[in-house]
């Protein structure tokens, strides 16, 4: 066969295929368009799948982080929880799901206080948050938070239990004890499960202020807590709950003792190194046992500037628990503080500690004298003789007499 003839036949066959599109196939141009469209469709589907996978992975990661921060997890978090319910928070997130943990109700009214694993700086940051919308988006009933600062047992818990009985929903209880102590009360007690994650405390040091801020911060997590009372294990109420509640919730001021007198135990403790942030004339002293409103409590918890100054310069023989809050409120909220305490105490005997009263001293006449001791004070701008709602220091032996008069004189 001649080469020229072969070339001619191949060329002729190619022309036929081009003209007819092959054996029943698509024209070449149409096939190219179809392949191009199919490629774009596959790319779009792949991109959509990748996008959906990314969204699902993001939601899963967000849920896991929410579980971690809201409920706490791991051994490190469990070690910081305040009492025997340490592991409850992590399992609750796994059992109930993070949706329950992130619910609005759980956010505004968290419980119990050991259900978080936050360190102090994390807790103070979280607790210092304040809503800027004045009206609450739910039916808010203001509560009084009772903050018990104790080394260990609460000998007057039975008296406080009678005081609180029948007024559920109007109060909250928080207990700061030494880290190794576990409060042992019945499950029906208002103190049950109310021990917060704590730290070591030594008398006369800044660690007492740290404990007070820790109590305030834990109580601030509950948005229903409106007033905050600091009490010790030797403190007792001298009026019934309705009287105390109405007095505090309706008050226009807070009750933090704040004064400055030229004696070694007051002005003599001022350290000139605190200037210019705290001047000598701004230095104040007062009883550690305060009562204050929510906004003042949040401001104290949020403070880092003055707390650092007191930590550095209010050292041995300065007693920051008697000076930090009185001085801070004088500097920042003087007009909103009544400059008096609502906790009665007897310093007439002198010495570093107030008088302590036991079984032989505590009689109805004694308690009545505390309630009406001739002191006159101002309440919402008007004079009153009801100046003290609580009293200290009482020895554990005083529990019996106080319980006996709880249904008569104390009326609870």
Describe the structure.
The protein is α/β, with parallel strands linked by helices and 412 residues long. Among the domains are: 69-116, no CATH class; 118-130 and 139-338, Spore Coat Polysaccharide Biosynthesis Protein SpsA, Chain A (Alpha-Beta Complex), CATH 3.90.550. Helices cover 41% and strands 9% of the residues. The strands form 3 sheets. The chain has a 4-stranded mixed sheet. Strand 7 and strand 8 (382-384) form a beta hairpin. The longest helix is centred in the N-terminal third of the chain and has 44 residues, at 28-71. It is a single-pass type II membrane protein. Its main location: membrane.
- Percent of residues in β-strands: 5-15%
CATH architecture level-2 label of one domain: Alpha-Beta Complex
Radius of gyration: 35 Å
Largest sheet properties: 4 strands, mixed
- What is the β-strand count? 9
Q: At the third CATH level, what is the topology name of one domain?
A: Spore Coat Polysaccharide Biosynthesis Protein SpsA, Chain A
Order of helices and strands: HHHHHHHEHEHEEHEHHHEHEEEH
Average pLDDT works out at 83
- What is the spatial order of strands in the main beta sheet? 2-1-3-5
CATH class label of one domain: Alpha Beta
Question: CA-to-CA gap between the ends?
Answer: 126 Å
Measured as a percent range, the helix fraction is: 40-55%
Principal-axis shape equals elongated
Global structural class: alpha/beta
Spans where pLDDT lies below 50 across 5 or more residues: 1-24, 64-101
Instruction: Please count the helical segments.
Output: 15
């Amino acid at each position: 066969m001649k080469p020229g003839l072969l070339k001619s036949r191949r060329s002729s066959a190619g022309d036929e295929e081009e003209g007819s599109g092959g054996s029943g196939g698509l024209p070449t141009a149409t096939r190219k368009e179809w392949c191009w469209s199919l490629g774009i469709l596959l790319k779009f589907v792949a991109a959509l799948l990748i996008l959906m996978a990314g969204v699902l992975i993001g939601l899963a990661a967000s849920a896991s982080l929410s579980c971690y921060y809201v409920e706490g997890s791991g051994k490190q978090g469990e070690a910081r929880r305040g009492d025997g319910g340490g592991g409850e928070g992590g399992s609750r997130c796994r059992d109930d799901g993070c949706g329950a943990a992130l619910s609005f109700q759980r956010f505004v009214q968290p419980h119990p206080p050991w259900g978080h694993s936050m360190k102090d700086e994390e807790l103070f940051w979280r607790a210092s948050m304040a809503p800027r919308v004045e009206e609450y988006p739910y039916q808010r009933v203001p509560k009084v938070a009772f903050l018990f600062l104790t080394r260990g047992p609460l000998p007057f818990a039975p008296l406080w239990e009678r005081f609180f009985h029948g007024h559920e929903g109007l109060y909250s209880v928080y207990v700061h004890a030494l880290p190794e102590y576990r409060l042992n009360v019945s499950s029906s007690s208002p103190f049950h499960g109310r021990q917060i994650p704590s730290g070591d405390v030594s008398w006369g040091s800044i660690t007492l202020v740290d404990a007070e801020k820790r109590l305030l911060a834990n109580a601030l997590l509950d948005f229903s807590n409106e007033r905050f009372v600091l009490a010790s294990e030797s403190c007792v109420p001298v009026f019934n709950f309705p009287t105390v509640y109405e007095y505090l919730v309706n008050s226009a001021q807070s009750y933090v003792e704040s004064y400055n007198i030229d004696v070694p135990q007051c002005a003599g403790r001022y350290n000139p190194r605190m200037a210019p942030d705290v001047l000598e004339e701004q230095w104040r002293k007062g009883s550690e046992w305060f009562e204050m409103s929510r906004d003042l409590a949040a401001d104290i918890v949020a403070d880092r500037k003055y707390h650092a100054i007191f930590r550095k310069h209010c050292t041995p023989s300065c007693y920051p628990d008697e000076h930090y809050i009185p001085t801070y409120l004088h500097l920042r909220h003087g007009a909103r503080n009544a400059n008096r305490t609502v906790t009665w105490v007897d310093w007439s005997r002198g010495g570093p500690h107030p008088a302590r009263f036991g079984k032989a001293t505590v009689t109805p006449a004694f308690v009545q004298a505390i309630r009406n001791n001739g002191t006159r004070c101002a309440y919402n701008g008007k004079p009153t003789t009801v100046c003290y709602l609580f009293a200290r220091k009482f020895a554990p032996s005083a529990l019996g007499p106080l319980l006996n008069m709880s249904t008569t004189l104390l009326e609870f």
